[in-house]
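Two folds, back to back.
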Amino acid sequence: MDPETLEEAPAAAPAPRRRPFIQFLRAPIEARSYTNLLFLALAFPLGLAYFIFLTVGLALGVGLTLIWIGLPILALVFAGSWGMTALERQLAIHLLGAAVPPMSPMTATAPSAPRGFWRTVGDFLGNPVTWKGMGYLLIKLPLGVITFAVTIFLLSLSAAFLLAPFAYPLGLLELDGVVFAIDGPWSALLSGVIGLLLVFLSLHALNGLAWIWRTLASAMLGSERFAAPALPAPASFS
C-alpha cells in the first residue's frame, strides 16, 4: 500500500460514550441496577452469618488448641472461610460485574507430581487470598449494616413520595413517624414528581455503594499474581 494512502487513512473512531444525562436516565431500566440492589440486600444477612461462624469457630478453635480438639475446629473454620470467600467472589462477579482475579494458581494442563499434605497446608496458609478473604468476611457485617440502613432509607423515602398521589384520598402519608400533609391534588402531584426524582437519585447512590463493594471484592477476593497460568518450561531437544 502507498505510504501516502496510509497517512490519509483515518484513525479508528473511539467507542461512543454515553452522555451523563442519558446515563442518568437509564438507571431504572438497566439490569445492573437491580443486580446491585440484590447484592446490597444480601450483604447484611450474609455478613451476620459469616461473622458468627468465624468468631465462634476461631474462639473455640484457639481456646481448645491445648487439648488438640481445637485443631480440627480451626481446620473446619479455614475450610469454611475459603468456601465463603469463593461464594462472595461469585456473587461479586455475577451481581456486581466485578473483575476479580483467581483465588489460587490456575491449574496447568500437564499432569504434575502429587503434593504432600504439609506442602498443601503451607501453600494454603501462604496464599494471601486466605487471609484477605477472611478479612473481607469479617468486615462484611459492619459494612453490611451500613449498606442495609442506607438501602432501606433511600428506597423507603423514594417509595413514600412516589406513592403520595395514590395516598391523596387518605390525606396523610406517614413515614417513620413524620407525617406529610397532602392538602390538595397539586401537592400530591408535586410529591409524586419528587418521588420520581428520588428514585433516580437513589438508584445512582446505591450503584455508587455497589461500586465500593465491587472495588473491595476485586482487591480482597483474589490475587493478581494468579491471573495468568504458569506456562510449562519448553522441552529441550539437545
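---
second:
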Amino acid sequence: MARLFWIFLGLAVLFLIPFLIWGGHWDWSPNETVDWLKQYGKWGWLVAFCLLMGDLFLPIPSTAVMSGLGLVYGPVWGGLIGASGSFVSGMMAYGLCRLFGERAIERLLGHEDQVRGKQLFLRYGGWLVALSRWLPLLPEVIACMAGFLRMPWMSFLVALACGTIPMAFTFAMVGHLGADNPTMSMLLSACVPPLLWWMIGKRLMRRA
C-alpha cells in the first residue's frame, strides 16, 4: 500500500498549494459572499454554482458560499444550488481521474497496490466519499482516488449525494437564519452523510 499512500499524499499536497498561494484572497464570510453575489443581480446563483465547481481547482470557501446562498435565495433554493455545484465538482474530480487508463494506473501504483486500492474503495469507498465532503481538502483528494481506482460510478454518485446534499442544505439553513458560528451545522454535516449512506447507499448497492 506504500505507493497508494504516496499518491494520496501527493494529491493532498497538490490541492493544498492553491490554499497556500491564494487562500487569503478567498477568505470570505457569508455576509461578504452575499455582497459579492448581489453584484451579479439575477445571475448571482450561476456565479455561486461556478464558484462551487471551481472549488476543485481554487481555494473557494464553499461553506461560506453555501451560507451566502441561504441568505440570498432561502434554505430550499440556496440548498439546491449549493448541492448542485458541490456535486458537479465531485463528479468532475472523479471523471477526470477515471480518464487515466488501467495500464497507466497500474504502472503508477503497481499491480498489488492497484488491486488493494480497488478492494479498499469497493468496500469502504462509500463511507470515505460521504464523510469527506464536510472536511477541508479531503473531498477533492478522495474523489480523485475514487476515480483512479475505478470505484463503481453508481456507488460514487450515491455516496457523493449522501455527503453533499446534507452539507449544502445545512449551511444554507444556517445562512438563512443568520447564524454567525455554525457549530450545529458542522455537527449535522458530519453526522448526516454517514447515516444516509448506511440507510440508502449501502443497501442500494447491495440490491444492485
